[in-house]
Amino acid sequence: MTVEPRTEAGDVLTDVIMRTFRLYGAFLDAAEVMTKPVGLTAAWWQVLGAVLKDPLPVSGIAREMSLTRQSVQRTADLLVEKGLAEYLPNPAHRRAKLFRPTEAGHKAIESLRAAQHNFTNRVSAQVDLNDLKTTLKVMTQLIKAVDDNPPHA
């Protein structure tokens, strides 16, 4: 494999990646604190959150969340076992059932709203709104760029 020369943009992106890892860890820690009182975990919240509007097959959730299908499957099965979600027939695919929250699952997510809003309001109050909007726009662009340019093995 040929080693391309370093660029300033590449170095900045490397720093963005490292900060993203740190931020992801902090968000997961916060999610664990918020979910514990309602009997959820951060992973359960993440999987249920992916299907609050529309049911998806496990593979669709995995793609949307950039998780492995196997880890989403384990979490989905646990959520079904706990009565927080259910599988439905999928008219588009006989074997890949659709996954969605039950009423209990929706209630569990709803019970997180106050803690979530309190947390996000406190954190976002320390960052300029326009900077947050720019961050969201750039993150969306980076997701597309990474999807369009997977790393070489």
Automatic annotation (TrEMBL):
Domain of life: Bacteria
Pfam families: MarR_2
InterPro entries given in the database record: HTH_MarR-typ, MarR/SlyA-like, WH-like_DNA-bd_sf, WH_DNA-bd_sf
Cross-referenced Gene3D superfamilies: Winged helix-like DNA-binding domain superfamily/Winged helix DNA-binding domain (1.10.10.10)
SMART domains in UniProt: HTH_MARR
HTH marR-type domain mapped to chain residues: 10-144
Transmembrane segments: none
PANTHER family listed in its UniProt record: HTH-TYPE TRANSCRIPTIONAL REPRESSOR YETL, TRANSCRIPTIONAL REGULATOR, MARR FAMILY
Official protein name in the record: MarR family winged helix-turn-helix transcriptional regulator
